[in-house]
Amino acid sequence: MKQILPLYFIMGSQDCKLDPAFTLTEAIKGGITCFQFREKGPGSLQGTEKVALGRKLQRICRESNIPFIVNDDIELANTLQADGIHVGQDDMPIEEVVHKFVGNIIGLSVHTVEEAKQAATHNIDYIGVGPIFPTGTKKDAKKPVGASHIHTIRDAGISTPIVGIGGITKQNAHHVIQAGAEGISLISAISMSDYPQLAAKQLKAILTLA
Ligand SMILES: Cc1ncsc1CCOP(=O)(O)O
Ligand SMILES: C=C1C=NC(C)=NC1=N
Ligand SMILES: [Mg+2]
User: Which residues bind 4-amino-2-methyl-5-(diphosphooxymethyl)pyrimidine (predicted)?
Assistant: First the structure.
């Protein structure tokens, strides 16, 4: 997980300023360590178009040995033989995901310390803790918890690998690492950039300095 979590890019076509394949290719050149295909919400693709884009982005990841993770959709994750799946608290119960998902990386969204404690009782590879900062990308995001919440989770004795998520930019990314997260996961800081390779490079540099 240590190699995978540092700079965890998440994107769907609905989040993308430029062409998704171009943005992903550039982000990989810029040093992302993991990619999550999250085709969801207003303006996202459905059905065969969603599968086709997933396959296209998975191919780009495979060429560079970057783990390809699918958000929420276990049928899609199994159809694509994705490396991992990420589910939310109100998606398929984690016991069912562990049982049904054929790949090997399982991630879970976590907001409260209680949810983090629950997650630690399952064989989960990482938890996505957030939203850390205010975000406009996820319409139904919960109240921002601040980077200190990661510290609180660590103080509760939870050692599950953590990526922070929500409103993370090159200006605030260091707070997330200093609070005890293994990495940062983000959408718009790269997906809305005119220069996704530079955006990824700058975020990666901050991680090494944090
Ligand atoms: C998927 C998700 N979960 C909590 S906040 C969020 C959106 C993160 O997007 P951004 O990095 O653009 O704030
Ligand atoms: C909601 C999410 C939280 N964390 C991660 C890593 N991905 C997500 N889709
Ligand atoms: Mg979800």
Answer: 36-40, 71, 109, 138
**Separation of CA 108 from chain center:** 10
Q: Which tokens sit at 168?
A: 């993370």
71 marked as binding residue: yes
* Domain covering 2-209, topology: TIM Barrel (3.20.20)
pLDDT, tens digit, 9 for 90 and up, residues 10-56? 999 999 999 999 999 999 999 999 999 999 999 999 999 999 999 99
* Residues annotated as part of the active site: 38, 109, 138
Which of 11, 185, 191, when mutated, tests ligand 2's pocket best, judged by the most ligand atoms within 8 Å of its CB? 185
| Residue extents of the structural domains in the chain | 2-209
Distance 52 CA to ligand 1 centre (A): 24
pLDDT digits (tens, 9 = 90+) for 98-139: 999 999 999 999 999 999 999 999 989 999 999 999 999 999
Provide the H-helix boundaries in the chain: 20-29, 47-63, 74-79, 94-100, 113-120, 148-155, 173-178, 188-191, 196-209
Contacts for 45-50: CB closer than 8 Å, 24+ residues apart: 45/12, 45/13, 50/76
Task: Tell me how far apart the alpha carbons of residues 205 and 210 are, in angstroms, rounded to a whole number.
Answer: 9
